[in-house]
Amino acid sequence: MTCRSRQLVLILALCRCSLTSGAAGLQPECKAYLDRKGFASPEALKSTITQCSVNKAMQDPYAPDPVSDIPGVTDTTPLSCRYGHPSLFNAAGGTCCGWKPHFNWVVATCDPNSHQQDSAFCSGLPDCVAKNGKDSCGAKVNYVAAYQYDGEEFVLLDESTAGTVTPDGVEGSFAQGTGWEQVKNNFTWRSGDWTSKFAPWGEGPTGPRGLTPPAMLWVLSADSFYYGAFYMLSQLTLNLEGQGYPTGTNCWNWELDPVEGALGWLPKGAKLPGNMNQAYATNNAAVSGCMPVTYFASQANGLRRNFSQPEQFVKFCQGHPGAAGCKPWEEDVMWSGGIHGTQRFENYANQPYVFAVVVDHRGYWIYRWIPDETTGHTGWPGIERTKAARRLRKRPDAVTDPAGLETDVRGDVHEAVILQPSVPPEAACLRASIEAPNFQFGADALGAMAAQLGEYSPGGALEGAQNWWAHFADTEQYQDYPLSIAGVPKSQLLEEEAAMDCNQLGKFGCDCKLPPKARRLEASAEQKPQAIPVAAKEIVKGISYGPMPCKAPCVTEQDDFMSEAAKHLWGPRGRADLQIMRQLGANSVRLYGNNPELDHSGFLDEAHKLDLKVSIGISDFPYTQHEGACAFTGMDCFNQIKESYLLNLKTGFLTESKTYHPAIREVIVVNEPDLKLGLVPAQFTKGVISAIDGILEAEKEAGVVGTPINLTVAYSFGICLPCTLGDSRPALGQMLHLQEAIHDPLKYGYQPRNDLVTFFYTRFSNSFNTANPADSVKAEFLDHYEQHFPNTPVTIQEYNPPHFDLSDDLPKIIKMAENSTLLTGISFFEFQIRYDKGGSEMDFGMFGLGDAVLASMPYFGKNFSIYCLTPQDSETSGTSIPDAVAVVYGGAAIDVSDLCVVNPLSVTLDQAGYLEVLSQKRTSQMSLFVERVINHMGATVYAHGYKHMNDLAQSLVDGSVNSGNGYSMADLASYLGSKPEWVDFDSRAKCVANRDVAPNVIGSAIGWTCSQNKSFSCDEIPAPCQNNTYRTADFVFSQYFGELGSDNPLVDCSFSGAAIYASSKLYNRWSGSARCVSDTDPVTSAPTTHIRSTTASFLQPSTSKGSGEVTSATLRSAVGQQMPVLLMLTLPVIVS
Q1: How far apart, in whole angstroms, are the C-alpha atoms of residue 216 and residue 235?
Q2: Is 41 helix (H, G, I), strand (E, B) or coil?
Q3: In this structure, are residues 863 and 566 in contact, taking their beta carbons and an 8 Å threshold?
Q4: What is the rounded CA–CA span in Å between residue 208 and residue 627?
Q5: What is the DSSP string of 1002-1060?
Q6: Cα separation, 190 vs 183, whole angstroms
Q7: What φ, ψ does residue 933 adopt, rounded to 5°?
Q8: Could you give the C-alpha distances from 642 to 558, 623, 770, 963, in angstroms and in order?
Q9: Which of 354-358, 461-465, 955-959 shows the lowest per-residue confidence on average (mean pLDDT)?
Q10: How many H helices and E strands in the chain?
Q11: Would you say 1079 and 1102 are in contact if contact means Cβ atoms under 8 Å apart?
């Protein structure tokens, strides 16, 4: 019998998978977790985490029955939890160890009772809340119902339901004194932090079983729930606390709070984060290691700059990248809720509400409805104001009121849903990957692996490690909702907080109300909005980039302008082309060919730093430019593109965790195939679909995980005369033939290996290149496109009508994109004039090349002069083309005088370099220089510190700080070394490769360093640090600097400019760098590469002194004990 990982529902005793093969059987994120944390196998991780010991004699009398009498309900016997919470290990831990996923409700109110008159959550409230009866506005409950999911429907559990139970379901009316009011005393539970508490509890196996997987539902109906709490605990906790802690513990190791007042969480008299009647939701009051929670959106996505969790929202965020929560790296959102979060319901006094709480595979779903005044109906058929049916369908009608589709729900909203996302196994490994492998997060990861391997149950290799989310079913609560149901940024509450007048002792009232949100659309039960408004899409405002570095016809060995060899063009210490694009307002850069054998992570890292997305083009080489090209294999491009793209994935397109680099917007499979892969659609379309198939196959072989990127094909804007589709519309016929071939590839002579249809509808967008003006594009293409492609986005990858007034035309095309549901934007064609092509190509380009030479660039066997840029003017209007683009893109005009001066990032870091920048008399240039000095000290500027830095730069330029012999580089270093409050010095700074330096300089420095080291061998470079010059240097430089034990990093971490003593904020931006320099998560040696350089010309860093020198003694005298050791240096040798 072959042993393999099985579905969790199978009987695990039949076969066990051996874990001796390390990560075999694990999914990608959990494999990556082991790799990242340095564990050879799940068992190795297990050995570092304490497992509790079960004491059945202590637990069994109080634990619920693991077996249900309802068919289809999960037997929880194999789901005992033995990791992840301190309560499992204390003196009474034997009671808690091995607890299982059985949960039930608690209702807490401020109703006084004979045992307790006041409490933390009720102290200081007005009488209208803290009293019983019809005059109260606090909690007027009709009924509480508990439903167990059986795989098809939710079934009422009588023993856990508080109301008048009938054969048809449950009933109750507070106004009539029935239901809850009649039976609540049967559910009285131990009070404490709330004056009165009610819950279903009993004697363990003979008491309420509670709710378990595969899904759970609780319903609370109230004629008023102005203030109170409706929350869930484990059934074991309810039983223990109900019986008065018979074993000395209540096993409080899990809690869900869908609706709870906030008063008791803050010191008495403190101002609440919301009005008293804004009940918050949270799932992190008590956290189990067997049912992980997200906390913040950024953490749930592993602090990556791409959205992958929760999976059901990936498509939404792809279509609406600016929506709340889709870019948590820009503005984070708390998904686990809490009193300071945005997941809350404002509840009006004496307003009927019905709450429903679902727990399923996707998370905690919290619904609230205002029942219909006449019928009592809610959005869930079978749930009404005064009764609920015995069996319910698995989900309610979709919530459509926009005001109920974002958290922080107002009291007058008729329907709303809040989600607290789950963390199933792969998500748990991703979430835990950014944390230490401790009792909580290590347990989260181990539980995820146990679930994936089926080794979680008694007798399993990972017994007691659990991820209970894996055992819940998806009840399809998600109905194409926006991500705002999981939380909105805290910044959205600022205006609301200013209007709060009921949030502090002495101000609490009986009728607190916030004004309705201005952005909410009014909706009633009779007429609800038919569409959900979503955040405005991000318009692509790109620039096409192919900066051939010559001013006349020329030929280069390669034209890979995203390679390290072209860094003099795009890099910050070179001509800084990418920075110029970003200043103009571009958010995207479109590229053409690339050599897949070369590393491209540096370009992508720099683009990512600048918040530029990259549209990467595949070279023509595998299509047409060599003997084995697919032009010579019947236009079957599968093998050629698969081989080429596999190399791309290994040389920068993927991160170490095998997700796509966050800077990549899309890959252009081929540029203008209708002009180069044959002139008839049968030929060029076969080439395209086989190339796409090759890319999909390469992704599978490389093990790509996370959010996939889009692919596109950039057609010409020519009319395809041989095309039989498209009505002779430019580009449209070519696109329609591709769509036909996707659905019927055999018609085009191709048998795909992958599901092209699913790919087409989830990951493909159309695109084209055009020199036609906006009006022509609309009339000839856009007006006809939507009827053929109602759901497929389209981008103009080259746009520039050179003989039209750009100041008039560019705003038109961008406005068309803003108003269109499908046109995503444009890439302006192009950044620099292509002198090498000549002819009509000279009509394009926003910049020409001037006479000043900024640098010399070795580029694949030739040396090219890097000329400064000169803005070009429109031939029709005479306006500057860069200025016209900046206006439309929302950027800033370029200061022409800055284009041909020395770059402050390229001068030497000494007195001469300082004076060279000072001579320019430009504050902006001096600011760049000052920040560079700070970065070389292992520090960065705080966000609030840039004003201070710019003020300093201004004072240097205007001479206001000069005295006597003037202000020198030594004075600047001395001042920065005194640690001004606006500079953040990083204790984790490392000596690493300077990404602003060309790779040939880095290579020479590696050679010299390897010849000098004593404590490590350059013949044993760890695998993650091989095959990339910069990462190899990260390892070598940091090892050598550590060997020196130097207190002069600006000297001993220089290597003639090849290195930088970088803060962790800097080197963490660089792909793979942290793996090669980290002390806390060291890389391990693997198959090695001999990298000792044959270059003998690299010189040891000089110790010569000259003008402006700063010795250690000078600096010690200048700054005394405040001097950080990294500034004990000799400045004249700090070159970079």
Answers
A1: 13
A2: coil
A3: no
A4: 75
A5: HHHHHHHHHHH-SSS-TT---GGGSS-HHHHHHHHHHHHHHHHT-S-HHHHTTTTTTEE
A6: 16
A7: -60, -45
A8: 21, 12, 29, 66
A9: 955-959
A10: 34, 31
A11: no
Q: How many Cβ atoms are within 10 Å of 911's Cβ, its own excluded? A: 19
Question: In this structure, what DSSP letter does residue 542 have?
Answer: E
Contact criterion met (CB below 8 Å) for 136 and 129:
yes
Residue 139 tokens read as 């909690």
DSSP letter string over 328-352? TTTS--BSSB-TTSS-EEE--TT--
Residue 698's H or E segment, with its range, is: helix 681-702
Place of tokens 């071939």: 741
Question: Which tokens belong to 469?
Answer: 């989310």
* Residue whose C-alpha is closest to residue 932's, from 987, 988, 995: 995
Comparing CA positions, the residue from 416, 410, 411, 372 lying closest to residue 397 is 416
Beta strand 415-421 with 164-166: parallel, antiparallel or unpaired? unpaired
What separation, in Å, do the N-terminal and C-terminal C-alpha atoms of the chain show?
A: 63
d(CA 467, CA 456): 9
Size of the chain in residues: 1136
Task: Name residue 222's beta-bridge partners.
Answer: 141, 353
Amino acid type, 2: T
Q: Indicate the burial class of 274 (C-beta count within 10 angstroms; 0-12, 13-18, 19 or more).
A: buried
Query: What are the structure tokens assigned to 1080, written together?
Result: 């806390």
Q: What is the pLDDT of residues 881-920, one digit of tens each?
A: 999 999 999 999 988 888 988 888 888 888 888 999 999 8
* Distance separating alpha carbons of residues 331 and 490, to the nearest angstrom: 9
* The two three-digit tokens of residue 403, written as one number: 């005001």
This model's pTM is above 0.70: no
Quote the Cα angle for 894-895-896, to 5°: 100
- What pLDDT sits at residue 351? 95
Give CA–CA dist 882/870, Å, rounded: 10
How far, rounded to the nearest angstrom, does the alpha carbon of residue 1097 sit from its chain's CA centroid? 45
Amino acid at position 1048, single letter = N
Q: Which residues contact 333 (CB under 8 A, 6 or more apart)?
A: 296, 297, 324, 325, 342, 486, 487, 488, 489, 490
DSSP class of 974: H
Tokens of 920: 């320019």
Label the pairing between strands 363-369 and 415-421. Answer: antiparallel
Query: Per-residue DSSP letters for 899-934?
Result: TTS--TTTS-SSHHHHHHHHTT--HHHHHHHHHHHH
Spatial separation of the C-alpha atoms in residues 45 and 83, rounded to whole Å: 12
Whole-number Å distance between alpha carbons of 999 and 1005: 10
E strands, 12-55, in order: none
DSSP letters spanning 846-903: SEEEEEEEEEEEEETTEEEEEEEEEEPBPTTT--BHHHHHHHHHT-----GGGTTS--
Token pair 């950080």 in the structure block, residue? 1124
How many degrees, rounded to 5, is the angle at CA 295 between CA 292 and CA 300? Answer: 75
Q: Write out pLDDT tens, residues 733-766.
A: 999 999 999 999 999 999 999 999 999 988 999 9
Is the pLDDT at 535 greater than 80? The verdict is no
CA–CA separation, 635 and 1014 (whole Å): 55
Q: Are 977 and 1115 in contact (CB under 8 A)?
A: yes
**Token code pair at residue 521:** 């659309």
760-795 pLDDT, tens digit per residue, is: 988 999 999 999 999 999 999 999 998 899 889 999
Q: Coil, strand or helix: which one is 389?
A: strand
pLDDT at 6: 30
Quick one: tokens of 389? 């049916």
Confidence bin at 524 (pLDDT 50/70/90): very low
Region 394-405 average pLDDT: 92
Residue 423, both tokens: 């963390």
Cα separation, 409 vs 258, in Å, equals 13
**CA distances for 511 relative to 348, 350, 352, angstroms:** 7, 9, 14
